Structure formats: structure tokens, C-alpha cells
Amino acid sequence: MESYRGSLLLLLLFPIAGAGQTPVPTLLQAVEAVYSKAEAMHARFEIETVNQAIGEIEVEKGEIFVSRPNRMRWEYSEPAGKVLLLDGAYQWMYLPEEGQAFRGEQNETSSEVTLALLADPGTLQKRFEVMAEAAADPTAPVGLAFLRLQPRERTEDFKYVVLGVEAASGKVLAMNVVDTFDNITKIRFSELELNPRLSEKIYELK
Q1: How many contiguous H segments (helices) and E segments (strands) does the chain have?
Q2: What percentage of the chain reaches a pLDDT higher than 70?
Q3: Contact indicator for 59, 77 with CB cutoff of 8 Å
Q4: Smallest Cα–Cα separation from 132: which of 12, 14, 8?
Q5: Nearest to residue 2, comparing CAs of 62, 72, 49?
Q6: pLDDT band at residue 107, thresholds of 50, 70 and 90?
Q7: C-alpha pair distances (Å), 107 with each of 60, 86, 89, 96, 104
Q8: Fewer beta carbons within 10 Å, N or C terminal of the chain?
Q9: Side by side, which strands form the sheet with 56-67?
């Protein structure tokens, strides 16, 4: 579940994409124009994970930091002290209740999709089929257009991702990740900054 937290993007031509009937090509151009120029990103996030089997909902909050080409940090305030870090070589998860960090491979997860957005948004069309998502998410910010990213190759981490794009700015403010058990992780971004000045120490696990 933890391996795919996190935010984002798209490419391909389909006719319509939700809110305001914004054409998908228009959205893609807006997104590419914004993220192709971004070397770094910072935002606040709220994650809601819905376990379909038992009807349980978990909510987490914090800040996300991303730097091109392959580093990312999810710093949690709820639960306090939790950290998910991609340092360019490995993926680390620090759980304060365990008092230790767990290391894994930095692989093709939805976090990697977010990194790919900054590094080269044009490569995502090779990995995903992108189409309009007909069912808008009522829990997402008002006024977003929704796009579904369907992996071209089967992945064990998720079935598909739905992105909520602010058409006027090209920013991705929402991401719904559906895993292979149909559990849904909803990620909402706010106070999103592109090209902030980030310290190198952010990507160190202490």
C-alpha cells in the first residue's frame, strides 16, 4: 500500500475530460507546459485510504517535496514522524512506532509516475493509455477535469490512477490510486509550489 503513495500525470488523445468538457489534448498541453519547466515541487497533502474489504478509512496528512529527476519525500504530520523517502537509489519508509527505517527498491510505483512528470512528462504516454474519466470524484476540489491512466503493462502496485487536473493552471491537485484489491487511495494536494528552493538535506533520512 505504501509503495504507491503519491502524486501524478498523463498523455494521449481522447475527446473529452470531465469538468467543463475540457478537451483532453488541451489538458495535456497545459500539464506538459507546466511540469516540463519544473525542477522541483512542494505541496501539502491529505491522503485518504479506503479499505473496501472491511470498510475502514485511514486519513494521513503532511508535506511532499519532489526534485528532478528522481527524489521525493513525504513528510507526515499525521501520523507525526512518519517518512516515505525516495533518495534516487532506494525507497525508504520510516515508521516512528517501529523506531526503524525499511529499505526497498525504487521501482515503477505511482510515486515514480510523479517523478516522471517532473523529469519528462512526455514519457508517460509510453507507459499509460490516458482517457477521460466519466465519473467525477465529488470529494475532490471543485472544477477539476479527471483523466484515467491505465498501465500499458500489468503492474502489481495498482490497476489504474485517476488524476484531477486544474484546467486553467495545468496543475494536478488530486490523484486516486486503485490497487489490485480495489482499495482506493485518494491524494489531495494544496498550496502547490513549482520550482521552490529545496535543501539537499530534505532527501536525507535522519
Answers
A1: 3, 11
A2: 80
A3: no
A4: 14
A5: 49
A6: low
A7: 23, 10, 9, 24, 9
A8: C
A9: 100-105, 90-95, 80-86, 71-78, 56-67, 40-51, 184-194, 171-178, 160-166, 144-151, 128-132
pLDDT on residue 9:
28
The three cell numbers locating residue 121: 512528462
Predicted local distance difference test score (pLDDT) of residue 120: 65
Whether 161 contacts 110, CB under 8 Å: yes
Q: What is the pLDDT of residues 14-35, one digit of tens each?
A: 223 443 457 877 887 788 888 8
Q: Residue 168 burial (CB < 10 Å; 0-12/13-18/19+)?
A: exposed
Spatial separation of the C-alpha atoms in residues 75 and 202, rounded to whole Å: 9
Predicted confidence (pLDDT) per residue in 113-149, tens digit? 666 666 666 666 777 888 888 777 777 888 898 888 8
Mean pLDDT of the chain: 80
The rounded distance, in Å, linking the Cα atoms of 116 and 186 is 20
From the list 166, 128, 165, 117, the residue with the least C-alpha distance to 150 is 128
> Average pLDDT of 58-85?
93
Distance CA 187, CA 202 (A): 21
Phi-psi region of 62 (alpha: psi -120 to 50; beta: other; left: phi over 0): left
Grid coordinates given for 90 = 532506494
Mean pLDDT to the nearest integer, 143-171: 86
